Amino acid sequence: MREPTGPSLLEPRGREGFITVRGARENNLRDVDVDVPRDAIVVFTGVSGSGKSSLAFGTIYGEAQRRYLESVAPYARRLIQAGGNPDVDEIGGLPPAVALQQRRGAPSSRSSVGTVTTLSNSLRMLFSRAGTYPEGVTQRLDSDSFSPNTAVGACPRCHGVGVVHDVTEDSLVPDPSLSIRDGAVAAWPGAWQGKNLRDVLVHLGYDVDTPWRDLPAADREWILFTDEQPVVQVTPQRDRNEKPYRGRFWSAKGHVLHTLASSQSQMMRARALRFTRTGPCPVCGGSGLTPGALAVTFAGQSIAAMNEAPMAALAEALRPAATLSDPTPALGDATSGESTDVAVTIAADLLRRLEVLLELGLGYLSLGRATPTLSSGEMQRLRIATQLRSGLFGVVYVLDEPSAGLHPADAEPLLEVLAALKASGNSVLVVEHDMDVARSADWLVDVGPLAGDGGGEVLYSGPPDGLTGVTGSVTAGFLGDDRAPARSSSPSQRRAPRGWLRLRGVSANNLHGIDVDVPLGVLTAVTGVSGSGKTTLVSRVLGDVVADHVRGGPAGTAEPAVTTGSAGEVGAGDGVGGADGQPAPAASVRSVEGLERLERMVRVDSRPIGRTPRSNLATYTGLFDAVRKTFAATDGARERGFDASRFSFNVEGGRCETCQGEGFVAVELLFLPGSYAPCPTCHGSRYNPETLEVTYRGKDVGEVLALSVDAALDFLADVPAAARRLAVLQQVGLGYLRLGQPAPELSGGEAQRIKLATELQRARRGHTLYLLDEPTTGLHPADVERLMAQLHALVADGATVVVVEHDMGVVAGADHVIDLGPSGGDAGGRVVAAGTPEDVAATAASVTAPYLTQQLGRAVP
Predict the structure, then answer these.
(1) Residues in a beta bridge with 591
(2) What is the mean pLDDT of the chain?
(3) Which residue intervals of 373-505 are DSSP H helices?
(4) CB crowding 583-611: b at 16 or more within 10 Å, else e
(5) Distance (Å, rounded) from C-alpha 310 to C-alpha 827?
(6) CA-to-CA distance for 826 and 509, rounded, in angstroms?
(7) Do residues 587 and 508 touch, judged by C-beta distance below 8 A?
(8) pTM attached to this predicted model
(9) How big is the CA angle at 211 (ends 207 and 214), to the nearest 5 degrees?
(10) CA distance to 212, 256, 276, 569, per residue, from 252 (Å)
(11) CB 196 within 8 A of CB 234
(12) For residues 108-129, b (16+ Cβ closer than 10 Å) or e, as one string?
């Protein structure tokens, strides 16, 4: 037998009871060695971009995932190899790992609370196997019949969406005094397409010069609603140079519905929606289900009613069945009923899982709530609850800022959940900026000292108390209870309003006829627990009312089709109302005063700046145009005949054709979620070798895209157009991001700050209202100070800024606070307190008050 020549693979490696990392070099990590304890709550802190996530997710979780997947089939193993391995010498003592990361991208409106938690699956099974069917029905429906996302379950009228778009003569022809030539059929497209339809009508013998109201009723009906599409030879009447052509006719209804069904342009869809009358499907009542599925009940309710009920009410409806003591055996047909052992088993399982969600403060959500309407904090808690219910033992849970988007009152149950995961025999690694979470940890790992190239070192690893003595740590100054960020202005520094925007009778979602006064010329923080109505009030109602006014519409109406453009400017863009272009439920405002004081509005949200690696920071902000022109002006580019387009990774010629200029290729993992891996040809540079031969100050264009904002600011200092944009990005705390950072890698908070930076580059004009939804998400307290300095500078320049925010430091530093609540869902939606931070802190009914009082006590004068 051959003697072993080295250490046995079966021998334990590393420090007992610890996960030992040696030589970690992922991203900006500098040969990091660190030991973190198992069976403990370990928090990774440091400024944004310091390397926390690279250590926790990229290295520790990445290695755990690689080891697990190496045990599966060779084919899957080859795919995982293509995804890359963590750059680390060795990791010892590493159990299996589960990652709970922040939501990326924009999920479909068909994704809901029930689908994310898988509770919908169990509820459908409950109705299928134990529901009460109508009398005379013996054939039991399959569980898929209770899902609007399946062919057998979707309502035939609305195809499972629950909403129908219809048109009427009034919606298609808003001004019947006009003739067709003058634009009476407003729903038709403009420019040449509209002229083509008019010319076709002329050749078909219809009158296009008589006022619409005077046309025969039969003609009006055919023009607007016919399904016919006649094709005629059209000879242009007014343009002698245009040749005859064969033109096809589309009715106004056909054009609108075809646009909604097939157009990929959000702007065209938004325009088409203006000419529809939208409402719940008359067949399914908005549930998206077939009549047969809706006829089945459990506890006296249909599955649609249970999907729409708050989870707290759903739990109570299921409790009698879940606690039934003497169930009967289940039958194999529809007569089985609700008192069987199957009903008890399924109902009891549902109840146990619901109770975990109730403990996390999510009882106000319904299973049917679409995930695009959830905050990142709500999504994070849903995922944590799912894992807590799984009952795993000996697992490493790696969490990405679980407190993001949470009010301090909501964060307290979160800490209890983390403790429960630990008590169940698991290790919990948390990447976090919330100092309350950091103080509650068993162990801290502080990474820094700065971001990007200035970070990547472990400054401290040990109990939380020990960090305060580390002089090089930025986090240390924010950790102690007796030390606080100096970002809370004193009462003497608060600005006085220069006017008021008064909204009366606001109704939307859980806001029911409330009155809200928004001061102008100051910084206002809107706060309250999750689900209290903050985002509905600010991003939807207030934003839509002001946007409608700025566009010249009737004052005082909240039109769902009003959104912001990609760069933050008002316009008809994506996100028309609800998700996937579906209109949001109707919102109304009885009256508005003060709109005349506002000339412009910018609504900055956390939606992604792009969906693929092709979208990135450099292209979105426009600074890459300056970079490409700079490279095109070099001697090397001139010698080769390269213009600026050669340095675009979206154009053939200069880009790498293997990855089509994305720098990444999609890696399909079959039974696992797909991912992106660096392109094997260009290794992530995006360009072909000939393009990379051209350099500027010693770097090719791929290397420039790999620079951080901080590094690029120095490198491109002599390119004014790029330097200005880079300086603003640095000022909002994004100096650590790479210029070519793919959009899917950006958090919602980062996407929001990129949009804000893009807006800040614009020349100031008029009195502008800025609306931001939790802009501090994902920011270290030190970076929050920099961001707030920019927002206060906007106010100093004469703007009005309204932020939805949970960070008590930001709330305490605002000029005015509007606190909604007192709870979430139906128990919220009211203005609990409004005034200065001191006024709100003194309001006994406010859940925010004690946390705000504590922050004001820490404030540095």
Answers:
(1) 504
(2) 84
(3) 376-390, 408-423, 435-439, 476-479
(4) bbeebebeebebbeebebbbbbbbbbbbe
(5) 11
(6) 9
(7) yes
(8) 0.78
(9) 85
(10) 14, 6, 11, 30
(11) yes
(12) ebbbbbbbbbebbebbbbbbbb
- Residue 504 DSSP SS3: strand
- The CA distance from 152 to 814, in Å, is 53
Helices (H), 391-462: 408-423, 435-439
User: Taking Cα atoms as reference points, which of 844, 846, 804, 840 lies closest to residue 823?
Assistant: 846
- Which three-class secondary structure state does DSSP give residue 182? coil
Burial of 471 (0-12, 13-18, 19+ CB in 10 A): exposed
Q: From CA 383, how far away is CA 404, in angstroms rounded?
A: 13
* Side chain identity, residue 485: P
| C-alpha span between 758 and 207 (Å, rounded) | 50
Q: How many helices (H) and strands (E) does the chain have?
A: 32, 28
Distance, CA of 696 to CA of 702 (rounded, Å): 11
Cβ atoms of 421 and 387 within 8 Å: the answer is yes
Which tens digits make up the pLDDT trace of 148-174?
A: 989 999 999 888 888 888 888 998 999
Tokens found for residue 589: 């405002």
* Interatomic CA distance for residues 825 and 478, integer angstroms: 33
Beta bridge partners of 245: 234
Provide the pLDDT for residue 676: 62
Nearest to 632 by CA among 685, 696, 702: 696
> Which of 748, 837, 764, 756 has its CA nearest to residue 523?
837
Residue type, 343: A
Per-residue pLDDT at 838: 94
CA pair distance 228, 233, nearest whole angstrom: 16
Distances (CA, A) of 434 to 13, 58, 430, 605: 33, 21, 11, 21
CA atoms within 13 A on the CB side of 172: 23
Half-sphere exposure of 552 (CA within 13 A, CB side): 0
Helix (H) or strand (E) holding 703, with range, is helix 701-705
Counting Cβ atoms within 10 Å, is residue 8 exposed (0-12), middle (13-18) or buried (19+)?
exposed
Q: How far apart are CA 433 and CA 780, in angstroms?
A: 5
Helix axes 252-262, 266-273, angle to 10 degrees: 140
* Displacement of CA 280 from its chain's centroid (Å): 25
Type of residue found at 802: V
Ranges in the chain, pLDDT < 50 = 1-12, 105-106, 482-488, 553-583, 670-673, 860-861
Going from the C-alpha of 607 to that of each of 375, 398, 610, 620, 773, the distances in angstroms are 11, 24, 9, 13, 10
pLDDT one-digit tens code per residue, 397-419? 999 888 887 889 888 888 888 89
Q: What are the C-alpha distances in Å from 528 to residues 404, 824, 852?
A: 14, 9, 11
pLDDT at 564: 35
- How far, CA to CA in Å, does 331 sit from each of 321, 338, 340, 342? 17, 11, 8, 9
Question: Is there a cis peptide before residue 822, judged by omega within 30 degrees of 0?
Answer: yes
Residue with tokens 């930076």: 757
pLDDT value for 333:
86
